[in-house]
Specification:
Oligomer: single chain
Distance between the termini: 13 Å
Largest sheet: 2 strands, antiparallel
Order of helices and strands: HHHEE
Radius of gyration: 14 Å
Helix content: 25-40%
Number of helices: 3
Structural class: mainly alpha
Strand content: 5-15%
Shape: elongated
Length: 78
């Protein structure tokens, strides 16, 4: 997860947590690029946020999605 996107997600989660009865969670999508390529690109280390699964999506009431972009396109994992 990009550091600036992760910071934004943490702030959104903090705001949602200020609402009574809301238990917001932060997930990330798995990286599908090979590790050697990520190393050559000097990609930042992975976040500590857990990877999301289809069952996580099924259990959630609402979603807020954030996408790092390349040339105005969302990441390939999506």
């Amino acid at each position: 997860m990009c550091k600036h996107l992760e910071k934004l997600a943490q702030e959104i989660r903090k705001g949602a947590a200020s609402v009574d009865g809301v238990d917001p969670k932060l997930w990330q999508v798995s990286q599908d690029a090979p590790k050697d390529l990520l190393s050559k690109l000097s990609a930042p280390p992975k976040s500590d946020a857990p990877l999301i699964t289809p069952s996580d999506l099924a259990e959630a009431d609402e979603f807020v999605f954030g996408f790092p972009t390349r040339f105005s396109m969302m990441a390939g994992q999506f």
